[in-house]
Amino acid sequence: xxxxxxxxxxxxxxxxxxxxxxxxxxxxxxxxxxxxxxxxxxxxxxxxxxxxxxxxxxxxxxxxxxxxxxxxxxxxxxxxxxxxxxxxxxxxxxxxxxxxxxxxxxxxxxxxxxxxxxxxxxxxxxxxxxxxxxxxxxxxxxxxxxxxxxxxxxxxxxxxxxxxxxxxxxx
Length: 171
Known about the structure:
By secondary structure, the chain is mainly beta.
């Protein structure tokens, strides 16, 4: 289906596209700046005057061997560090639906309380981007979490959990 940036790209006079080594694409236009797209074509960022570029008129784009994007604009050359500087998490990469809060680091990993229970952020690897997994023992609404040393406490309106060993225990 249509992406939010489709109209801006279509009416911005598409000019060139360049591929990054991780499958992302940068598309430059003659009127609406540049667009950074994920491998599926979804908009990650629009790079234009509103984002701080000197011009919306793009003349060319290059990707260097370190993955930086060089945008040649009507107002000068801009280097964009294209490494993922921001990560978006949603249902597509396992994030729970609804409210997510109370982030806590426990045993070197990040955990989040949510409407759907306890979620763990799995770091990215060479073959897979960072993503959420749910902790199957805790699937109830959680309001809060606290970590203290080698223990994690989590609670909601009807349940409290203590995590000392390998699995959380309800108490």
